[in-house]
Structures are given as C-alpha cells and as structure tokens.
Write a structure and sequence with these properties.
The protein contains 13 helices and 5 strands. It is an alpha+beta fold. The N terminus is likely disordered.
Length: 250
C-alpha cells in the first residue's frame, strides 16, 4: 500500500502540519497510548467519533475535515488480494469452524470447507461468489442453505448482517460513494432484501446496535447457535476473517 493510500497517511499530514505529536494528540482525544500510531500506519480504522474528536483538536477546516470523514481508499489491487489470501490460507484451512476472508467492502475472497458445508455449497458452486459482497451471497435466493431455513429466522440473520455492514462502513458518511450506491442497487434486486433493508436503516438512524454477534443457522435439520468472530488482519489492514464459532445450545 502506498503512503497516500490510507486515511492514516492523510491524518499524519494534518497532525504534523499542526506541530502536534502522536502522544499529544492521544492525550487531547483521550485515546489509549499507540492508538494514533496505529491509525496513521493503517493497521486500525478510527470510528466516526474518534475522527470528529481529531478534527476538533486539530482545528481542521471544513474541507480538511471532509477529506477525513469522506475518505475513500483506492480499489484493492489483485496483488494485494492475492497476498492476503495466501497469508490467511493456513488459518482458514486449519480452522474446524466455518470461516471466510473478506475485505473492507465486505467482498469475499476465500473460505474454508466448513463454511461451504454450512452454506450447503461445493467448491465449484462457491467460485461464483469470489469477489462478491457477503450480503449478496447471503441474499442470493439459489444458495442451498436458504432452502432449509425458516423465513423468520433468515430475516433475523439478514437484519444482523445488514446492521453490522452499516456500522462497519459508517454508512451515514459513505452512502453517496460510488461503490456503496452500486452495491445497494445490486442488493435491491433480491426479493428478501428490501423489507429488511428499510428496517435496518431505521435501526441504524436511531443508533440501535445490531446486538451481540449471535447468529442461528440450520445445520443437518437442526437450528444451531453461532458466535460471529471478526479477526482483523494486522498484516493486511483492509482484510478480516469472519469465523462462526458454535455455541453450547444446552
């Protein structure tokens, strides 16, 4: 990733132009030691609340503030994707739990066999979803697991996934971005998406959290509970592994 290809590099330029050290900025925004360093290096993404604090403490102009709030990274290159896939392959292959690799736009780039089994798909079928947003995968009506899950249960899963998406991308700041508009246009073509989408937006605008990361899937005719674990990739900050850990249903 080039130095100019992440929000942290822009923040660093503003901070240095104000003559403020990372440690001084952390004290001003009441952040943990090293937090600004991680943002500037691109290893962590700041929340909207953190960005607003930074903007205030650095006394940024409206234009400068918008360059942070509405920052959009360049498209991932094929080499960046390939490196992330290669570096996480061992973890995915060794995990006994359903897991997949996704980027910061929620596009799926790799998965393991337990994930395919959970979705009722084989490797050949799954290839059609490589590089596709995980929401588009979930709402695809011909996905085998959709046939075995009650509609009300699917609505709960869909609501959780959409609200998680809205929170993670800071939808209120990015809803006008081209990639977001194009994604929503694709998703609205799925029969079950629209009703859930309206409710999810309503919840998001009201500041309602998606709730704990508990999701129910139908496994071998039985409803089983999973905890959705999200593992950020330090070596590849724009990627994460999503892993579904089975919970004790007793």
């Amino acid at each position: 990733m080039s130095d100019s290809n992440h929000l942290g590099a822009v923040l660093k330029q503003f901070r240095k132009s104000k003559g403020i050290t990372q440690q001084e900025l952390e004290l001003l925004i009441e952040a943990a030691p090293g937090h600004v360093s991680r943002i500037e290096s691109g290893t962590t993404n700041p929340t909207k609340e953190t960005l607003i604090k930074i903007i205030k403490q650095l006394s940024l102009t409206e234009k400068e503030a918008n360059s942070l709030l509405f920052f959009e990274m360049e498209e991932l290159t094929e080499s960046e994707i390939q490196r992330a896939v290669e570096d996480t392959q061992a973890y995915l292959s060794s995990s006994p739990y359903p897991a997949y690799l996704a980027d910061d736009r929620f596009r799926v780039h790799n998965w393991n066999l337990p994930m395919l089994k959970l979705l009722g798909a084989d490797e050949r079928y799954a290839q059609k979803f490589r590089g596709i947003c995980s929401l588009a995968v979930l709402f695809s009506p011909d996905l085998p697991f959709r046939q075995s899950i009650p509609k009300d249960r699917f609505k709960t899963i869909g609501m959780h996934e959409i609200q998680y998406f809205l929170d993670e991308i800071h939808y209120d700041l990015k809803k006008e971005m081209k990639w977001v508009c194009e994604l929503i246009l694709v998703l609205t073509k799925f029969p079950d998406f629209n009703d859930i989408w309206e409710q999810a937006q309503y919840n998001y605008r009201r500041g309602l959290e998606p709730g704990e990361n508990i999701i129910y899937f139908n496994v071998s005719g039985k409803t089983e509970k999973f905890f959705m674990s999200v593992i950020k990739q330090t070596a590849h900050p724009r990627f994460r592994i999503v892993e579904y850990l089975p919970q004790n249903n007793g």
